[in-house]
Amino acid sequence: MNWITNYVRPRINSIFSRREVPENLWSKCDECGTMLFHRELRDNQNVCTNCGHHMAITPRERFAAMFDGSVFNEIDVPEPIHDPLQFRDQKKYPDRMKAAQKKTGERDAMLVAEGEIGALPIVAAAQDFSFMGGSMGMYVGNAIIAGAERAVATGKPFVLFSAAGGARMQEGILSLMQMPRTTVAVEMVKEAGLPYVVVLTHPTTGGVTASYAMLGDVHISEPNALIGFAGARVIEQTIREKLPEGFQRAEYLLDHGMLDRVTPRTEMREELITILRMLMNQPPAIKGNLPAPEAPEAAPVAEAAVTAPEAEPKP
Amino acid sequence: MHYLEFEKPLAEIEGKAEELRAMGVANEEMDVDKEARALDKKASELLRELYTDLTPWRKCLVARHPDRPHCKDYIEALFTEYTPLAGDRNFADDHAVMGGLARFNDEPVVVIGQEKGSDTKSRIERNFGMARPEGYRKAIRLMDLADRFNIPVITLVDTPGAYPGKGAEERGQSEAIARSTEKCLKIGVPLVSVVIGEGGSGGAVAFATANKLAMLEHSVYSVISPEGCASILWKDAEKMREAAEALRLTAQDLKELGVADRIIREPVGGAQRDREAAIEAVGKAIAGMLDPLRKKDRDALIKQRRDKFLKLGARGLAA
Ligand SMILES: [Zn+2]
């Protein structure tokens, strides 16, 4: 039990005593079971304040927490042809799409935006696991291409947050073709001499890992994120043995040389600022992380650029 | 001859003809010839009938047919001076991937392909054509070699997919596939590819990201196996026929979607019925794709490849 349950809860209960307490005011941590007050959880970017477990976060919430002043401009993503294969399994693909759009309020599984972090302009793309498992289809491909083109046109670094079970089966071979397609996009950014940083979040598997998610200049992952090509169950069935503890988790991949760093979400923004400023040959960020003054003549601050989280405007 | 499930009626007729002929050899006074020939005719009619309009699932079975010519057969028949080059220089040599220098119509090329093996021993040695990271890294190394000496690359695709193993994951299966795809896109020499059997997901993309892609008439290329798709979307692996239908994985569908550039006709009854004819047709298709590319310079080759993939998906299938 933490202080929220002991202290805040009774108060909240009294406020809402005449009505039922809306369930969504509280979330239970999937990992430790602690009941977490929603605003607190949101302010901590959906990281459990009790055990540090990283829960899913939508691209919009992530961008709001990452960009200076929560200000970002969405980059327009060209709409692909709908249901190119007229795919139907037990449901029709357009029906699955509509349901996912209704659930998330988004057009598809990726959001692309530009804005500043620590006064450094960047382009960012974030995959939305809550939209059909974040699956990579034509739209996600278009989103990555749009982001890469914008980064190249404006000379900004490209930061991509991956989260997907893999390719979108309902688009068949066209989803598979997003592997080479997004690789072309990544190449454009690299050839322009701009950083391409991948932040792998839970889960990143299948064709997504085997294309743009593993082609970064720098690979950072959130703690305990599942990252791999094949599913653990398929592997166990194939090799007929149990997989070791922590297999395909971020820390395991770090040990096996596939990642540069494992960084908590709450420290990600500062870390991206630090890394990107160096890669972009910029002076260290100004402490306090306000938009840079016209002529930053002040002596560089010795310690790494950080912002006290309290100083950050919250959405 | 290995018969597929849907070929059972054919197996019966062909079996009868064979039996009859064997009887004829044993008893010289018996005249079986006429009857046997009638059976032959019936069999060949049935074969033609079975192979016109194969369902997508049946195409999957044909694409996986153990008697189909495999990578090794194509390399032996179509190339001269084949000089295998081994290893990824990091960890191992992956026997699921064949590759090396060779001559194609007397011109030097680098040929790379997945080999499934042809009997129990070789299948195990080749890991059923499922490459580990070392296989993709070997391919990357060979593509670099080709690029450095301005030699075209020919890839032959035939894999159920990348190997789902513990070590494969630990050594970066995803990264290896991603880098191989990236290498395909980067090299400044012609890259032509043929799906000769199964184009299994990312494991195939890593080889097939080519200037020109041909597919054998009954080959398939898919984001996931029909069985895998069925177990996820239908929650029933036995719905693979429906999944194969929905996935649009046939050479014909891929040609319409612009993923495949050409389809190579197979002999009646599939490549396994007349291996030489199938191999010869593949050779002709490779030459047909490669020759025009030889005239292009490095930048044009890279640009053509990139544009092809950037534009992919602009059209769907006609309703
Ligand atoms: Zn917790």
From TrEMBL, chain A:
Q: What does this protein do?
A: Component of the acetyl coenzyme A carboxylase (ACC) complex. Biotin carboxylase (BC) catalyzes the carboxylation of biotin on its carrier protein (BCCP) and then the CO(2) group is transferred by the transcarboxylase to acetyl-CoA to form malonyl-CoA.
Q: Which reaction does it catalyse?
A: N(6)-carboxybiotinyl-L-lysyl-[protein] + acetyl-CoA = N(6)-biotinyl-L-lysyl-[protein] + malonyl-CoA
How does it associate, per the subunit comment?
Acetyl-CoA carboxylase is a heterohexamer composed of biotin carboxyl carrier protein (AccB), biotin carboxylase (AccC) and two subunits each of ACCase subunit alpha (AccA) and ACCase subunit beta (AccD).
- Identification of the protein by name: Acetyl-coenzyme A carboxylase carboxyl transferase subunit beta
Q: What is its main location?
A: cytoplasm
Reported EC number(s) for this entry are: 2.1.3.15
Q: Where in the cell is it found?
A: Cytoplasm
Question: What range(s) does the CoA carboxyltransferase N-terminal domain occupy?
Answer: 25-294
Q: What's this protein's family per the entry?
A: Belongs to the AccD/PCCB family.
At the top of the EC hierarchy, this enzyme's class is: transferase
Gene encoding it? Answer: accD
Compositional bias of type Low complexity: which residue ranges? Answer: 291-315
Domain of life of the organism encoding this protein = Bacteria
Transmembrane keyword on record: no
Asked whether the UniProt record includes ATP-binding among its keywords, one would answer: yes
Which UniProt keywords are present, listed alphabetically?
ATP-binding, Cytoplasm, Fatty acid biosynthesis, Fatty acid metabolism, Lipid biosynthesis, Lipid metabolism, Metal-binding, Nucleotide-binding, Transferase, Zinc, Zinc-finger
Q: Name one Pfam family in it.
A: Carboxyl_trans
**Quick one: which residues bind Zn(2+)?**
29, 32, 48, 51
TrEMBL record, chain B:
Q: In which pathway does it act?
A: Lipid metabolism; malonyl-CoA biosynthesis; malonyl-CoA from acetyl-CoA: step 1/1
Alphabetical list of Pfam families matching this protein: ACCA
- Main location, first listed in the record: cytoplasm
- The UniProt record lists the CoA carboxyltransferase C-terminal domain at 38-292
Q: What GO CC annotations are associated with the protein?
A: acetyl-CoA carboxylase complex
Q: Which residues form a coiled coil?
A: none
Which biological process, per GO, is one annotated for this protein? malonyl-CoA biosynthetic process
Tell me what reaction this enzyme catalyses. Answer: N(6)-carboxybiotinyl-L-lysyl-[protein] + acetyl-CoA = N(6)-biotinyl-L-lysyl-[protein] + malonyl-CoA
GO MF annotation: an example: ATP binding
EC numbers, comma separated: 2.1.3.15
Q: Which PROSITE patterns match?
A: COA_CT_CTER (PS50989)
Q: Enumerate the UniProt keywords alphabetically.
A: ATP-binding, Cytoplasm, Fatty acid biosynthesis, Fatty acid metabolism, Lipid biosynthesis, Lipid metabolism, Nucleotide-binding, Transferase
- Broad class of enzyme this protein falls into: transferase
* Location in the cell: Cytoplasm
Q: Which family does it belong to?
A: Belongs to the AccA family.
* Function text: Component of the acetyl coenzyme A carboxylase (ACC) complex. First, biotin carboxylase catalyzes the carboxylation of biotin on its carrier protein (BCCP) and then the CO(2) group is transferred by the carboxyltransferase to acetyl-CoA to form malonyl-CoA.
**The protein's assembly and partners:** Acetyl-CoA carboxylase is a heterohexamer composed of biotin carboxyl carrier protein (AccB), biotin carboxylase (AccC) and two subunits each of ACCase subunit alpha (AccA) and ACCase subunit beta (AccD).
The entry's protein name is Acetyl-coenzyme A carboxylase carboxyl transferase subunit alpha
Q: Give the lineage.
A: Bacteria, Pseudomonadati, Pseudomonadota, Alphaproteobacteria, Rhodobacterales
- Gene this protein is translated from: accA
